[in-house]
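>> received
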Amino acid sequence: MTHVLEKPPTSQATAALTPAELAARHGLTVSGARVPLRAYVRDLWRRRHFVTAFATAKLTAQYSQAKLGQLWQVMTPLLNAAVYYFVFGVLMNTKHNVPDYVPFLVTGVFVFTFTQQSALAGTRAISGNLGLVRALHFPRAALPVSYCLQQLQQLLFSMVALLAILLAFGVPPAASWLLAVPALALQFTFNAGLALALARLGARTPDVAQLMPFVLRTWMYASGVMWSIDRVLADRDLPGAVTALLEANPAAVYIDLMRFALIDSFHADQLPPHVWAWAAGWALLAGVGGFIYFWKAEETYGRG
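>> returned
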């Protein structure tokens, strides 16, 4: 039996190949090309230490130029809460019939700020880091996720002030405070999915970043941060569609969970069972949906 050895391609044959065919022959791939979803998830998990370090570095640098430094992590939401208390609680009297209005308000502000800042950071996660995206090969989802982790770190730092406020206004420690852990885990998953979806939109259309503050401000007013949705639904005969939207609003759902864990259980109020279902559903929908939506455009980030 005779064995015929395959001849290496001649320079003439090589010259006839297109650049894509030539790259494929030598095992070259497109920089930032989208890999299969399962491999993408594994690659992102391998970069978890980068995600954590990037988030911590961003958090440290955020207030490095301010004289009060990291204290602004707590002071900013507290100052916002003070303004809302004066405008809504005093002038508009939304504190009427709301027990422990100050803890109620501060909890709402802190929890909504977590989602608000995660969304704002998500819109600029790609467009604000183009140098990093174009220079290094890594799963781009690491950027929006790291920004959400940064906001979670900031919230946990601020929770010390929140718990101090609760104690100062007579809300005693309770076992229900432990429910804050799963509530924050679900909210973080929702925020990460939202940030991933907005990161893709912001990478394609930078004007999204200019529009988001107005969208988020409207969302805040509809989320019961400064007023009780339950009181409004009990006092007013609103259309069924409006009631359903208010009850299913993801920001309001996560605020309700945290208020129940920290405050409402002290008054023996019962949390409607649908709230945990809504919280898990929104986390699953946004987390999985936002991740896949972002991954589908992986090869487009950093181009143009």
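>> The longest helix spans residues 142-168.
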